[in-house]
Amino acid sequence: MKKLNKIFFSTLFFFFLNFIHSEEINRGLEIAEKADESFSGYGDSKTTLKMMLKDRKGLVTERVMEMRLLEILEDGDKSLIIINNPRDLRGYAVLSHSHKVGTDDQWLYIPALKRVKRVASKTRTGPFFGSEFSFEDLSFQEVEKYSYQYLRDEDLEGKEYHVIERIPLDPYSGYTKQIVWIGKTDPLIHQIYHYDRKSFHLKTQTFRGYKKYLNKFWRPNEIHMINHQTNKTTTLFFEDMSFNTGLSDKDFTQNSLKRSK
Predict the structure, then answer these.
(1) CA gap 252, 109 in Å, rounded
(2) Is this model's pTM higher than 0.85 or not?
(3) If you average pLDDT over every residue of the chain, what do you get?
């Protein structure tokens, strides 16, 4: 009888733990979906990006780019980033087709060769033109591309956050996991810890100066990335943001990449 009781309570405890874990997974996904909703609904947009790169000695390098975005309801969104300055990088462009399931597609246009080169899945973890952002970072982070788990609620600098863990499903991702801080009162992503393939805390990404557009979706004015292993930082500043500009699928093809200016 004692043995049977022991088996019964062990089984009950096992199901209890599974139930708690399932609840944490469901809650983590629910929080992530609310954050995604606050970003969605924009249709298409154009913005000027200023990228400030700072090395470990404090030397600053600036890049100026244009970013065009297109919302795709049935799949991941599309983006086109065109570098205008400095002179030696002018004309380089990166086209990204993100997907809800599977690896994203990315292409790089090299103006000196007048050639479009596909960015291989295994190389998307590399730095975007010397910055602390990778090609992977600058592709859309669709909700379906991760598994989730709720970790805790946390007060950070006087603001309350939900803290969740998301694990990339893409086997070629440069990260084993990401810890994400999402506001409790405003369901916006404010901070991400990125862990590399050895599970070390590689980078911290912070989102600042959120502004609401068209009374329904949010964008940060600034995204800051620090690499804790190199002590280098990169900051993106978003300027002259406009929406419903008339962009369509034909503006996000490999042929359009060659014509980008």
Answers:
(1) 13
(2) yes
(3) 89
